[in-house]
Amino acid sequence: MRTTVIDTDSPLLTTPETAELYRTTLEMLNRSGVPYMVGGTYAFHYYAGIARTTKDFDIFVRRQDTQRVLDVLNKAGFKTEIAFSHWLAKAHHGEKFIDVIFSSGNGVAEVDDEWYAHAVDVDVLGVPVKLCPPEEMIWSKALIMERERYDGADVAHLFRHCSGLLNWERLVRRFGAHWRALLSHMILFGFIYPGERALIPAAVMREMLNRLLAELDVPTRDSKVCQGTLLSRAQYLVDIDEWGYEDARLEPRGNMTEEQVEVWTAAIDKH
Questions:
Q1: Beta-ladder partners of 120
Q2: How many other CB atoms are found less than 10 A from the CB of residue 241?
Q3: Is the pLDDT of residue 147 over 70?
Q4: Exposed/middle/buried for 82, CB within 10 Å: 0-12, 13-18, 19+?
Q5: Which of 233, 207, 243 has its CA nearest to residue 87?
């Protein structure tokens, strides 16, 4: 069991009416026995100590448990839909929303058993729940670099507030072949907080920099693949559509099908 990062009484972070609906829904989920985790605003407040008001609620589940969660939400009065088959379902109750997340928009951060193995037991809105682990929150957020949304500040605040809590070996492993994205945030952390750069363990920074140095003398491969689409679904479409680069999101390199990429791209204007 991890120790509490901040002293919090789980503030509402929303209107009392909305909080009551979320509380009732969490209680129904607990009674159903379907496994889930709370993420989003409530998890970020717990780990980073930053309170944000929110209009929605984020629940993380394994892909195979998605429909079971939606069934519970239907009983709670929500209307539900699979918004995007590769990562997200949505539930709405009037103007109140719950996102049911089983992967990430780029298809990288799939929710699996390891999320649950390292989840944190806390109370949210007075209900006992499991929070998404901080390592997985960083993994998901580090790859969000849209024009309209960049989660780099969230990553920096998570580094700052719970550096000693993180399993750095596991965090690096989670990024896998995308380790350069993690390294970029580690380097930026030292720029953002020059007096606290030691919060990034020196051994981890050396390991990552050694990986970078080792690549300098290795001939480049995959010269016609663009991994920018893992960071932004919009800003690197020119590379794919006009410049002949392969889309790193697509199978077998990535986890998305061509149809899923088309649907995800078509939704850009709606957001």
A1: 131
A2: 11
A3: yes
A4: middle
A5: 233
Burial of 222 from C-beta contacts in 10 A (0-12 / 13-18 / 19+)? exposed
**Tokens 């998901």, located at residue:** 140
216 burial type by CB count under 10 A (0-12 exposed, 13-18 middle, 19+ buried): exposed
Please, what is the Cα angle at 48 between 24 and 93, to 5 degrees? Answer: 25
Stated pTM of the model? 0.93
The closest alpha carbon to 133, from 113, 153, 151, 150, belongs to: 113
Strands 120-124 and 225-226: unpaired
Cis check: omega of the bond before 201, within 30 degrees of 0? no
Dig out the tokens for 23 from the structure: 């509380």
Residue-level pLDDT at 4? 38
Written as six digits, the tokens of 1 are 């069991």
State the chain's mean pLDDT as an integer. Answer: 93
Alpha-carbon distance of 37 to 154, in angstroms, equals 19
Cross-strand bridge partners of residue 56: 97
| Gap between the Cα atoms of 12 and 3, Å rounded | 22
